[in-house]
Amino acid sequence: MELQEKLPVSIFTEVDREIFLRDIYQERRPAVLRGVNLGSCLEKWTVEYLRQKGGDKDVKIHVSTVPQMDFLHKNFVYKTLPFSDFVKRASERKHSDFFLCEDESYYLRSLGEDVRKEPADLSKQFPDLAEDFHLPQFFGPDQFFSSVFRISSRGLQLWTHYDVMDNLLAQVTGMKRVVLYSPQDALHLYLSGDKSEVLDIDSPDLKRFPEFVKAKRYECVLEPGDLVFIPALWFHNTVALQFGVGVNVFWRHLPADSYDKKDPYGNKDPVAATRALQALERALHTLDELPADYRDFYGRRMIQRIQKRTLCVEQDSGTTLPSSQFTKPGCESGEM
Ligand SMILES: O=C(O)CCC(=O)C(=O)O
């Protein structure tokens, strides 16, 4: 018996800006976009071509003895290689030159020039390759945040995490399995920050993670030329079914000042969320001044208040609306 039902991600063809904005973007659900013009990269980006055009620029990569990379327990090391050497190694199964073992796995998530301050931008770090990649203009140029090279060895699995910006992940070569979970399933994913502690999503340890089976698993397999729209806060976990090259583009879906200014990766919580979480910590600290039975009593009332003010209600169509749209802040329950 399957652990979790695999729900398909809707596939759309012949998507232009108007269709994207009207039928996909508004829904705030993942979607695969097939047949969008990604430019000449689809024909050109062979291993040889990438090595030649990408050149010898140093890149920082993840290297691991196993294909399942685990950020929380750091089962990989960061190493630096010239881009051209990295592409060669990532594309082969066994390596004559290696760091850890001859069948080690590689992953590149490209970075900006100043790693701590600048988001990745393909046109700045790899201008000769960026010419071949055409991203459809589904959002305004002022919303653009970053474009990131994602290059993986065959079998490479990236941990489940969310990002705070909207994302189009383009698969240029190779096939990739993408599993997604709704933000509404966050509590079933055993989060540590923006990452899930459940590493093996196909065969999870249900003694440690009994709630995990409650999370609805959406799944798609990307082929070269496909894009997957990953709305902000949707969790995703990817497996490269073959050596694969992709580019993902993050853009700001909220007003620019909602985001943390010191966030080159696009995964720091929006400033208002960070402030709210800090305020919650302070409130809990204040509650610690009371005995346990009082903490329990006021804790329950706080939970109810938070639920009433923030949770979305499931609609028949599968879309969600914040329940606060139906209640006036401050007089939602009349009981507090
Ligand atoms: O496919 C990958 O390499 C990971 C993609 C990813 O995490 C992202 O686009 O945010």
Automatic annotation (TrEMBL):
InterPro entries: Cupin_8, JmjC_dom. It catalyses: 7-[(3S)-3-amino-3-carboxypropyl]wyosine(37) in tRNA(Phe) + 2-oxoglutarate + O2 = 7-(2-hydroxy-3-amino-3-carboxypropyl)wyosine(37) in tRNA(Phe) + succinate + CO2. Residues 317-327 have a biased composition (Polar residues). The keyword Metal-binding applies. Keywords: Dioxygenase, Iron, Metal-binding, Oxidoreductase, tRNA processing. GO terms for molecular function: metal ion binding; tRNA binding; tRNA(Phe) (7-(3-amino-3-carboxypropyl)wyosine37-C2)-hydroxylase activity. Its cofactor is Fe(2+). Residues 106-268 form the JmjC domain. GO terms for biological process: wybutosine biosynthetic process. PROSITE patterns: JMJC (PS51184). Its EC number is 1.14.11.42. It is an enzyme of class 1 (oxidoreductase). Pathway: tRNA modification; wybutosine-tRNA(Phe) biosynthesis. Homodimer. This is tRNA wybutosine-synthesizing protein 5.
